[in-house]
Amino acid sequence: MLTPRDVAHRLSKCEADCIICTPELAASLDEITKSVPLRIIVSDNQEDIRAGWICYNELLESCRGRSAQPCVATRADDIAQLFFTSGTTGKPKMVPHTQATYGIGHIGTMRYWLDPREEDMIWNISDTGWAKAAWSSLYIPLMAGATAFIHQKPRFDAKETLRALCEYPVTVLCAPPTVYRALVQCQLSQFPLRALRHCVSAGEPLNPEVMHTWTKNTGLQIYEGFGQTETTLLCGVRKGMKLKFGSMGKPAPGYNLKVLNEQQQELPPYHEGKLAVSLKQGYPIGLFKGYLWDEQRTSEAFRDGYYFTGDRAYYDDDGYFWFVGRADDVIISSGYRIGPFEVESCLQEHPAVAESAVVSSPDELRGEVVKAFVVLAEDFKHQQAETLIADLQNHVKTATAPYKYPRKIEFVDSLPKTVSGKIRRIELRAKEWAGLTEYSSGSSGSSSNHGG
Length: 452
Known about the structure:
By secondary structure, this protein is an alpha/beta fold. The chain is 27% helix and 25% strand. Belongs to the ATP-dependent AMP-binding enzyme family.
C-alpha cells in the first residue's frame, strides 16, 4: 500500500542499503534506486530478475556448505529494529527498539494479552513492517513456541478471511478493528469457527456494537489491547477481568499510566486528560528512548517525568481506562469537548452504518461542529439520503448526550486509512477546514447540516 515515494522517504530516513521484496514490488522499487542507493533482493526465483538484483533463494543456496559464522555480539541497548509510526496525525516518525525493549518487553504482551500456548496457531492480520506484525507474528510466537499462520492476499476480503478461519486450525486471531468491523457485516452464522478460542484487537478502539455482534454470533469475546509503535502493550483487557465494552482495560504490568491536565497534574476518575506514562518510579522495559535523529519530537514526547502518548483518555473507579481520541482529534463545539470515538460507536450501533469517522467541521456560530463521514452497509446504500441522515442524527441524540450528535453527515464509499488500517481523521479534518465539502475518494455527495 506504500507508494514508491513513501518507500523512498523511509529508505533515505533510515539510511538502509538493502531491501527484500516480492517480485511484484521489485519493478516499482527499481525506480527508487535512482535516488536512493540500495541493493534489491527479490524473494523468489524469477527469470526476469534485472541486472544488479539478487535472488533471495539463490543467495540462501549459495550459503550451503559454508562453515557457520560466529554470532554478532550485541548489547541490551543496541538497536534491533526501526519502525515508522503509521502517520495518523502527521509525518511518520522513526522509532528505534532495542534488543531488550521487544525481546523482554513483549513477555508481558504475551502473558497478559495474546495468551498463546505452544499448540496454538496465531493469525495476526497485520502487514509486515508495522510494529503489530513484530508483536504477534514474530516475537510472541517465537517466545511461546507457537505457530504463526501466514495467509497473504493482495487485498483484504472479509468472506475469504472467514473461510480461512473455518478451513485452517487457527486458534488465536489478532486483528485491527477495521477487520472486525468488516467481518460482522457478513453472515457469521454461515462460518463455523470451531478451532478459534481467543480473539484480540489492537490498533485503535473497537466499537462496542462490533464486540456485541461478534460475541453473539461466535460465542467469543474480543479482548482489546492498547499500545503504540513506541511501546509494547500499554493497557489491555486480560482473561479473567470483568469485560467493559469499549474500555481499553487496565495498565499492563510495568506501565504506570496517568491522566494529566494541562498543568501536568494527575486527574481523578472520570476526568478526561492527557494519557501519559509516569517515569518517576522507573523506566518501563518496553518503552523506546526517543525518536531517531529527531530531538524536537523526542523532547515533546518526554517531559516533566512523563512520556506523553498523544492520546486523551479517562479512567473509572475500577481502574479501567477509556479512550477519548488523539489529542488533535478532540472536537470543541460551543465549549463542549467531544471525543470522536464515542460518536462513532453510537453510529456503529445503527444497522445502516458499516464504518464511520468523526471530525470537526467549521461553524460560524459554534466555532466547530461534529461531522460524520459514513460508509453505509450494503442494504442501505440506495435509501433516500435526507431521511437516513435524520435517522442517524436522532439515533445518536438518544444514545448519548444530545450535544454530541453529528450536525453534518456525509456518505462516502470508503475512509482514508494508514497502511496499518487506522482511520486518517487528520486527512478528513484538513479537507473540512480547507473549505472542501466533498471527500474526493469516492464521495457519494450526500451531505447535510441538520439541527439547530
